[in-house]
Amino acid sequence: MTIEGISHITFVVRDLDKMAELIVGALGGREVYSSGDRTFSVSREKFFVLGGQWIVAMEGEPVAERSYNHVALKVPQDDLPDYHVAIDKLGLKVKPPRPRVKGEGESLYFYDFDNHLFELHTGTLEERLVRYRKERDD
User: Fold this and answer.
1) Average pLDDT in the 9-36 region?
2) Which of 31, 35, 100, 114 is the most buried (most CB within 10 A)?
3) Same domain membership, residue 108 and residue 93
4) What confidence score (pLDDT) does residue 100 get?
């Protein structure tokens, strides 16, 4: 048995067009499918490609409460300010970053229109492991 990677990520949302504003308008993805009134799954849906990843927005009742469960997307350090402007233009809630140690990258956390938490992160797993090992070894 072999896991080859993540196939897709699905978000249940109230408004498919609002999610398209976020994925396409603010994050630079592209919409590749819209079911319209035809449904092949459990409800109307849209498919996007974002950073090479298949993202699904499915119409329905989203999570009721905000939590720290999130999806982190890798972005270049220099792009964080531009993403912050785009997120602000949509009126989305930006969450203050958590405390960080130097060398683990920077993040911009924000909630979408349906309480899903996204993180735009500049670091890599390798950088974080090196930094955490250094902290342990000091």
Assistant:
1) 97
2) 114
3) yes
4) 74
Answer yes or no: do 112 and 89 share one domain: yes
Residue 44 has pLDDT above 90, yes or no: yes
Using the predicted structure, report yes or no on whether residue 5 has a pLDDT greater than 80.
yes
Write out the chain in H/E/C secondary structure.
CCCCCCCEEEEEECCHHHHHHHHHHHCCCEEEEECCCCCCCCCCEEEEEECCEEEEEEECCCCCCCCCCEEEEECCHHHHHHHHHHHHHCCCEEECCCCCCCCCCCEEEEECCCCCEEEEECCCHHHHHHHHHHHHHC
Residue 45: active-site member: yes
Q: Is residue 87 packed enough to be buried (19+ CB in 10 Å), middle (13-18) or exposed (0-12)?
A: buried
Average per-residue pLDDT in the chain? Answer: 91
The answer on 88 and 47 residing in a single domain is: no
> What pTM value is reported for the model?
0.88
Residue 79 sits at φ, ψ, to 5 deg, of -85, -15
Domain enclosing residue 18, as ranges: 1-61
Mean pLDDT of 79-89: 96
